[in-house]
Amino acid sequence: MRPDALVTDALDEPAIGAVPAKTVYIETFGCQMNINDTEVVLARLSEAGWTRVDSIDAAGLVLYNTCSVRDNAEAKVRGRLGALKPMKRARPSLRIGIMGCMAQREKDALLKNYPHVDLVVGTDQFVHMPQLLERLDETGRVAATDFGDFEDRAWDAVREPGANAYVPVMRGCNYNCTYCIVPTTRGREKSRKPELVEEEVRRLIDQGFVQVTLVGQTVDAYGKTLGDGSTLAKLLRRLHEVPGLKRLRFITSHPKDITDELLDTMAELPRVAKHLHVPAQCGSDRILRLMGRRYTRDDYLRFVERARARMPDVELLSDFIVGFPRESDDDFAQTVSLMEQVRFGGAYVFMYSPRPGTPSSHLPDDVPHEVKNARCTHLLSLQVKHQAEFNSAQHGRIHQVLVEGPSKSDEAMLHGRSLGNLNIVFPRSGSDGADRDHLVGSIAPIRIDRSTGLTLFGDLLT
Ligand code: SAH
Ligand code: SF4
Ligand code: F3S
Questions:
Q1: Regarding the domain with residue range 23-144, which homologous superfamily does it belong to in the CATH classification?
Q2: From CA 44, how far away is CA 121, in angstroms rounded?
Q3: Which of 22, 168, 321, 452 has the most other CB atoms within 10 Å of its CB?
Q4: Whether 61 contacts 133, CB under 8 Å
């Protein structure tokens, strides 16, 4: 953002006309589903003659694809909108649009509270973005937030090139965890037909992707709404046979929907990653009940046993919420002990944030911020300890690594993922100086020789 664009006495500057109308600047917040939705919007807009630009100054339209999952995600967008106010005053032709979960949650209220916002587009309507923008030209301001069907052709996306492509296989969520805004912002669960998923996967392989990650809020519930006996296990079997696909992964799973059929299938199919992201949220039955999670601590531990019995090296990832209403020291101790019992390969820890209109928002948010913060730090440091111990135990082990490209933190290294989705880094050239970039997109055997807390380092086995 150019600071002088924020000065209101730029009013008379002939900025208008300098920026082509069909240029869009888009910023994405939130989860993988939102990242994919952005790619879908860009695909629809590019078909309609729009170009993406990477600065607000060069854009005729600014779009924020928003997240509502915690208040801090929404606060970022409120901040962005505040900063745009003087820009819009200086350049009235600038269009401002909000899409994603915040748009769905607040609907018309956003237009009312932010007079400089032109467009509010919900989590299903964004596939019609070009048409909505035309309507905007006619009517001045537009809100479109109805939930729609899974209209498959319109969900094609244009992706950043790379080794891995994310493919949404379901939208929405049929659970009602009491803290969660997602069922409100994303609506009821809708699965995508297996033949259409396969068609997209084949197209992606043709484009050069070698790994596919299937995405859904509760991806292990895939197929229930299709009513034809479809399950995630069957979908994995089907996609596993697509020629050229080197690895297949899926996120995120709900503990209640992990069937033996799914675990058996994962164990059997060699190209399916031995990796499960299954949020436990907490380890206390009393809090799990208040969260409406529909499983007990014991159920969760049994799932871990079932998974490890079939796949001894399976990597388990979890999310945790600390400071849920009424969470006592004893409840928290149960979460710590769950973490110690399971020893996760990775964990995301969040401080509870009451979301407007959710059932838990009616309970007093009674765990003080300092306590939430301390519990968060405690779990994170425990996780770091577990990961560091796990990583040291990997020294000398050989992993089959799908090489993704140069490491972001060190150009002299390549990085990739093991079958369990561990992040593994190794030199970009051999001891003879030979370049190894040709390995990108293929699977290479790497022997681990050292590690830091969160990353494994090794070298190519020759
Ligand atoms: N659908 C996924 C997760 C969706 S949201 C699933 O159920 O597995 C991602 C994570 O955000 C959740 O797993 C939860 O840990 C966290 N989260 C959701 N609502 C929250 C809230 N109100 N406050 C804090 N964290 C929250
Ligand atoms: Fe939210 Fe629960 Fe659905 Fe996950 S399963 S999206 S936490 S309601
Ligand atoms: Fe956020 Fe919506 Fe995803 S609330 S986490 S962007 S589904």
A1: Methylthiotransferase, N-terminal domain (3.40.50.12160)
A2: 14
A3: 321
A4: yes
Decide if 147 contacts 103 (C-beta within 8 A): no
Q: What are phi and psi of 163, to 5 degrees?
A: -85, -35
Q: Give the architecture (CATH level 2) of 172-392.
A: Alpha-Beta Horseshoe (3.80)
If one residue of 68, 217, 257 were mutated to test the ligand 2 pocket, choosing by the most ligand atoms within 8 A of its CB, it would be 217
All CATH 3.40.50.12160 domain ranges in the chain, comma separated:
23-144
- Rounded average pLDDT over 365-380: 98
Residue 23: pLDDT band with limits 50, 70, 90: very high
pLDDT at 148: 79
Which ligand is in closest contact with the Cα of 179?
Answer: 1
Residue nearest to atom 1 of ligand 3 (CA): 67
Interacting residues of 310 by C-beta distance below 8 A, sequence separation 6+: 263, 264, 266, 267
State the closest ligand 1 atom to the C-alpha of 358, by its place in the atom list counted from 1: 22
Which-ligand-closest: CA of 73? 3
Answer yes or no: is pLDDT of 269 > 50.
Answer: yes
Of ligand 2's listed atoms, the one at least distance from the Cα of 281 is 7
Residue 212: both structure tokens together: 């596919």
Query: What digits encode the pLDDT tens for the residues 298-314?
Result: 999 999 999 999 999 99
Q: Is 251 in the pocket of ligand 2 (CB under 6 A)?
A: no
- CATH 3.80.30.20 residue ranges of the chain are 172-392
413 within 8 A of 427, measured Cβ to Cβ: yes
Distance CA 346, CA 339 (A): 10
**Angular region, 374: left φ>0, alpha ψ -120 to 50, beta rest:** alpha
Whether the pLDDT of residue 154 is over 80: the answer is no
Pairing of strands 61-66, 51-52: unpaired
Start-end ranges of CATH 2.40.50 in the chain? Answer: 398-460
| Cβ–ligand 3 contact at 31 (below 6 Å) | yes
Q: Judge if the beta carbon of residue 125 lies within 6 A of ligand 3.
A: no
Q: What is the mean pLDDT of the chain?
A: 94
Taking only the tens place, the pLDDT of each residue in 405-417 is 999 999 999 999 9
Is a pLDDT exceeding 90 seen at residue 219? yes
